[in-house]
Amino acid sequence: MFAREANSSEIIKGAMADIIFLANDCEKGEGPAIAKKFGIRGYPTYYAVNAQGEPIERWIGYDVAQGWADRVAAARRDTRTLVEKKAAFAAQPTADLAESMANDVATGYDWAGSVALFKQARDLAPERGDALTRAILTNMVSSEDTDFTFEEIRAEGDRLLTAAGTTAEDRVDLGSMLMDAAGARGREADGLPYLERALGAATGLPDDSRVARTVKFLQITHALLVEKNTPRAVDLRKSLMPANWLEEAKRLNQFAAWCLGADVNLDEADVMVLKAVELAKTDPERVRYLGTAAEVSLKRGDAATALERGARALALDPENEDAKDLVARAEAAQAGKTN
Amino acid sequence: MRRSLPAVALVALALVASAAAAATDPAAPLTYDKALAMARHEGKILVIDFYADW
What we know:
The structure holds 2 protein chains of 2 kinds. By secondary structure, chain A is mainly alpha-helical.
């Protein structure tokens, strides 16, 4: 999403004018070595560094253009290193430092720690409450389902939905986040009112709205959960794929992964992910697609095929933790069947 | 071994030159070292987007 908006968003273009920007593909060229040097754990992760290469800000995920530009502005405003900021925060907490620390710990997937720090920032700067509440909500939704209850997440979402500055596009985003949070906690029914309100807010938005894709995904969820119309959901999902996607390995895998997550259309997903395996150009790609293929097999109740696919992935990358986990689960599923 | 001042200056010049080349040739792939040299030369911070083309 960042790459798409970097070419169209005046906010991002403005922020770019004041910095040197490096797009580091973590799977190509020098990219993996640079990612390893910085200990990158997830994508996208952003680092702002000084001329000595020392981190001065870091954050994970891309939400909206203004949020990204705000992090860049924070890095330019206070060019102390993160180590120095941490010491300053311990001595004299400020809202800006709390926000820096919150983003810092989020890059280590410490969502609970991150949310606590964002809340501290909000207490210190209530005038920035809406932006910080959005960060709190985003981090809560990113967390494991055991970190925060749906009630805690809903409270932050409701706070934003009633805020004066919340736009129709924000309402679509918020509905999507709350529906996702509800689904991740097995509380789909509690998310549906937010889904309906988000789709209501989307009425009248232009086709090129920044949330156009989010609206489509909400329509897909609506087709699955409310209309109970799986073929329509699948057709809507296909309509979101780019031209020639049937010839692109990563797109085929993406579609199969969606089918897997929604637990629909698994026969077609199986065909498509196997085509992705065939089309893969590198072993890391092949391992990833074999992983999806094995998951599809498991979901279809075919443990033997899942094991064969998992073993192929593991043979290509013996240290791959996901492949090891897949093989273990496939073996357990097979043992369960034979016992 | 101590590095003489001229040698340091040459290294610095080379970095600035490569940064300038990268800045003037939009087709040239920007590397981490070049980006850092550009940041140093222009007095800006460097922002790195760690992504994967999935």
